[in-house]
Amino acid sequence: MTSTAAAGTASAVEFESIWSDLQGVAFSQGYLDVPVGDRKIRTRYLHAGNPQAPALLFLHGSGGHAEAYVRNLAAHAEHFSTWSIDMLGHGYTDKPGHPLEVAHYVDHVIAFLDTIGAQRAHISGESLGGWVAARVAVDHPDRVEKLVLNTAGGSQADPEVMKRIITLSMAAAENPTWDTVQARIKWLMADKSKDYDDIVASRQRVYRQPGFVAAMSDIMALQDPQIRARNLLGQAEYGSITAPTLVVWTSDDPTADVAEGRRIASMIPGARFEVMPGCGHWPQYEDPATFNALHLDFLLGR
């Protein structure tokens, strides 16, 4: 192959960019002081849509950040006041300095809704975010309009998966080189051929913050068997959810197979279950067109 042909082949590969995903979207990035207990948690957010529209809150997974939903803001902002936040202890949101259990995240989410003036909201969570969203629906049914659990955690304790999450996450936090952070990102995705450079660069910047190793250790608390056991959701919890619920799973989720997603849906009264093919743990990013259509059809009741 000539150098010219090689260059042409390389240029044909589309570079995935967070900024390109947000170009043309009227969005804001900022911080809100969210009162939780006796302190205020400085909370980073991305927001798009009419603030007077019904609220929609996106919650990312363990070790993640608001950019998990950059490919979903535009479509949802047409209908909702759409928020994607750095969850408690994650991204650029304040780190409380103690092991984080589900109740801590729930308290932060409820306080965030109070801060933005949303008495009720649609809540859509991926992985850890789905675990937290489900618990919000259990403990605060009056605050949840509709619920989406996207490759959600919290239903089981698989020792191999838990070990893998700890190993990859702590390696990336303790030594945030390109390779360690990229390994953590690629683990999420079905398509391992892509480099995900922009997501890697964004997360590398997060992980290079002073003190983030301790923050990641606190995030990993839910991968400890004893801590996880007291936070798991079972038949009683899922069965008490009254919000209309969509459970989204994927063909290539690295945390649990389709049967586990179907089992979760079977425990939630009236839940709808959908499988997205060709995706891993981030279907909202890997196949945003399918996810956005599926998600919006459910939220809008069409």
Automatic annotation (TrEMBL):
The keyword Hydrolase applies. GO terms for biological process: acylglycerol catabolic process. Residues 54-288 form the AB hydrolase-1 domain. Keywords: Hydrolase. It comes from the Bacteria. SUPFAM superfamilies: alpha/beta-Hydrolases. GO terms for molecular function: monoacylglycerol lipase activity. One of its GO terms (cellular component) is membrane. Pfam families: Abhydrolase_1 (PF00561). PANTHER family: HYDROLASE, PUTATIVE (AFU_ORTHOLOGUE AFUA_2G14860)-RELATED, MONOACYLGLYCEROL LIPASE. This is 2-hydroxy-6-ketonona-2,4-dienedoic acid hydrolase. It comes from Mycolicibacterium smegmatis (strain ATCC 700084 / mc(2)155) (Mycobacterium smegmatis).
